[in-house]
């Protein structure tokens, strides 16, 4: 394509040419007023002379036209998966490409927007995607941008003027103006809470095009039975939540579906409160002085998070030796207060070599058995006392004791070893020094022989007899250590052993810490994958069904990575809470942002993009009204109207070759100038 134009390359500065022109014009005017002959010829000669000094040049450019570039931002975020929007988006994209193909000299580039999986890129970031596309487009070729979206864009600039991409910005809304939706929004929820204390979770129900009537909402905490509350839409509602245990306490709020609503994905909201124990209250009762008593006390007192109440019975009341009553104890033993009135306030009760005595009558022991059945925790560290007829087994506490003594005490050196079940159980699995064919810790020398009918034997001693038995009794738990020689480890005998770690794990298991549950299902995000771990005492596990935030389901097969531990992984493609289930256990795992903005608002809207489109000279169109007609408009002209949207025609080009031809640098132009002067002199001479 050729383009002609005229330029100037003056032989003298323009100021000099202007002065000469003014002087020449004045002279010609004066002669004309004096009625001198040849006025027209003088004016023509002056004009030709000035033109020669200006040196006009004819320029011919060989140009290659460049296409105008439009950008289509295609929203494929999580909210676009509802109400058939994904299908309409695909159809609209195909129709848009066909319409651009029919326009002259126009090119379309598309960029997709997907929901992020982390809190940093959570939501639909359409403007971020548009800016990335504009970085590769010269401004003089940009024709405009078209967003095919449901309008739920989360990075629209607060100042619409800053959203101007340098051309018209249009939006095609894939949803419908009359969409209905009901959603649960958690307004305030604590991240942490003390175990046993009450926390408040605030939420509200919001409806789009709903009836506005009170809604019956179901609220479940952990694995407890759900409760129902009637909540008016649009009003904040507070619910008290008791933190039942350490670790994750899941609060799930569910609203019933609204008739005709576009999706029920946001009818449920989940928040996770991490339970934290303030201080562990432990009651330690030592039946008699022995070398291990101080070891127990030192271990418990060394932990700043433990409140320890310790009593040692030096002399039972039934022993008669003439000692005055006022000298029997330094302080009164508040047995009724501890074992009747305030027993439920303790997190753990430890009996260390305790024998049946009148200090704690049968009624008190029965109350401790009730305490266990109702959810309490008891640790029994036994020596020969358990085998005697006055041992704890021959009290009402026998109802919760899993290992029954045979009456024999076995003497001889042995190394405590993990049983097959102990290698799986989180209390003993991976204890320091337990690896290899034989543990590296020191030996013990005494063991109470027992038989077990319930519970798990996780450690064995002499001749493979049970050494540590863990049992669930009712709602509570009981641990039995069937030797009184654990103190040898704390004293470092033959290298010692992991007594502190073992006690810590036993105490936390007794208090139902989730990290030490032998049957658990959990998921954690690592890099771009959701790693699912199943702990179990069984030899095999079932596949895990993962329900994604969008409602889709995936099945993950697990493989054994260690005794009692099975793992599997799933690529994270959606941000939010993933529900895990293997048919027995159910849990949730957060990937990216647990409260994904994509799911907070699903109703299509034009309000978010309207200010930015107006500032850029574009328009908003609803796909339910039909795909708008696409036209090209000149710069400065209106770019949108009823039923149509426009892309800017830039007339951009690339210059391939340039040729310049001076008009007064040829013999012909010089001859014309001489002819004009000659004609002027000739006319004056007549």
In short:
This protein is α/β, with parallel strands linked by helices and about 675 residues long. α1 runs antiparallel to α2 (about 40-55) and α2 packs antiparallel against α13 (about 665-685).
The spatial strand order of the largest sheet comes to 16-15-17-18-24-23-22-20
Uncertain segments are none
Tell me about the largest β-sheet.
8 strands, mixed
Q: How is the quaternary structure best described?
A: single chain
Number of helices: 13
Coarse structural class: alpha/beta
Helix content: 10-25%
User: What's the number of extended β-strand segments?
Assistant: 37
State the shape: elongated
What would you report as the Rg, rounded to the nearest angstrom?
A: 44 Å
Distance between the termini: 53 Å
- Summed over residues and divided by their number, the pLDDT gives a mean of 83
Strand percent estimate:
35-45%
